[in-house]
Design a protein that fits this description.
Length: 268
C-alpha cells in the first residue's frame, strides 16, 4: 500500500480514493477544523458524501449512554460534526470493511495489500480466479499484477518453476485445491504510475504530458481491437509456463513414434 502522511490530508484534499488511507480518528480531526472554516461548513454535505464512500456515517439522534454503547458495540467511533457556526450533531463513523470481492472498487483496490486481496479472493467460495466476474477481475488488475497457473500437486513447487520465481519476485500466492491439481494465484501491487495524456502543439505535433487532470485528451484504446491484422500471428515467445494452464511434459522417447510415422508426416 502507498505510504502517505495522513495529517497532510484535509477535507479539502480528500477524494474517493485517498479517503481509504485514513481512519475514523482522522475524520474527526478533519471535522474539528471544519468548525472554524465557514467555507467547509457551507459545503459539509459534499465532504460527508466523499467520506461515506469509505465509511459508514450515522447521525445519532437519541444521545443517551445506552444508545451510544450500542453504536460502539457495532464498531462505530462517536464524535461530532458541525452543521453551522453554532450547532453540531453527534455522529458515529465506521470504516467500511473489505471482506468480499464485491467490496472491491477502483477507488480502494490500491489501498489494500496483496495478502488482503488474496484473503478476499479465497472467501469467494474457493472458486479460483475464473470464478470472478470480468468486472471484478478488471478492478483487481487495475491495481495488481496477477498471474495464475494450475498444475498437479507434485509439480507446483518444482524447483526453478513458476511458483519459485514468482515468490522470489515479491508476489504473494494463494493456493486453491482442485482435486489432484492446485490453482496458484499470484498477486503483486503494481507500482504507481502517472497516466500520460496527449497534447497538441501549434505545429500539430503530439506530446505527452503527465498532468493528472483532463484525461479526455487521451482517448482510451481497447487493445482487443488494436492491430487487427496481427490477430492471426503466431508468437512462440508467448508460449511460457504462464500462458497455459494444464501442460503435461512428455518425454519424446515415450511417444513411441516409428520411422513410418515420421515418413508419413514428411509427405505433407
Amino acid at each position: 500500500m502507498k505510504d502517505i502522511d495522513k495529517k497532510s490530508l484535509t477535507l479539502k484534499t480528500i477524494n474517493k480514493s485517498n479517503v481509504w488511507d485514513i481512519q475514523e480518528n482522522d475524520v474527526f480531526r478533519m471535522l474539528e477544523v471544519a468548525e472554524k472554516d465557514s467555507d467547509i461548513r457551507e459545503n459539509i454535505k459534499h465532504y460527508i458524501d466523499i467520506i461515506k464512500s469509505a465509511f459508514e456515517v450515522e447521525e445519532i439522534k437519541i444521545d443517551r449512554p445506552e444508545i451510544i454503547k450500542k453504536y460502539e458495540a457495532r464498531g462505530f467511533q462517536i464524535g461530532t460534526m458541525p452543521v453551522d457556526e453554532s450547532q453540531k450533531v453527534k455522529i458515529g463513523i465506521k470504516k467500511r470493511p473489505i471482506l468480499r470481492v464485491t467490496d472491491l472498487t477502483y477507488e480502494n483496490i490500491r489501498h489494500i495489500s496483496a495478502t488482503k486481496l488474496l484473503e478476499v479472493i479465497d472467501r469467494n467460495f474457493g472458486g479460483g480466479w475464473d470464478s470472478l466476474s470480468q468486472s471484478i477481475q478488471d478492478i483487481i488488475q487495475s491495481g495488481f499484477d496477477i498471474s495464475t497457473t494450475t498444475l498437479p500437486k507434485d509439480r507446483l513447487h518444482k524447483v526453478g518453476g513458476m511458483y519459485e520465481k514468482k515468490v522470489a519476485d515479491g508476489f504473494e500466492v494463494l493456493e486453491i485445491s482442485k482435486g489432484a491439481w492446485i490453482e496458484a494465484i499470484f498477486a503483486k501491487l503494481k507500482p504507481e504510475t502517472e497516466k500520460p495524456r496527449l497534447k497538441f502543439g501549434t505545429d500539430d505535433s503530439r506530446k505527452y504530458d503527465s498532468d493528472e487532470d483532463d484525461d479526455e485528451d487521451l482517448p482510451e484504446i481497447d487493445e482487443k481491437y488494436d492491430n487487427d491484422d496481427d490477430d492471426d500471428a503466431f508468437d512462440e515467445d508467448k508460449l511460457t509456463e504462464e500462458s497455459y494452464r494444464t501442460t503435461i511434459e512428455e518425454n519424446p522417447e515415450d511417444l513411441d513414434l516409428t520411422a513410418e510415422d515420421v515418413a508419413d508426416d514428411d509427405e505433407y
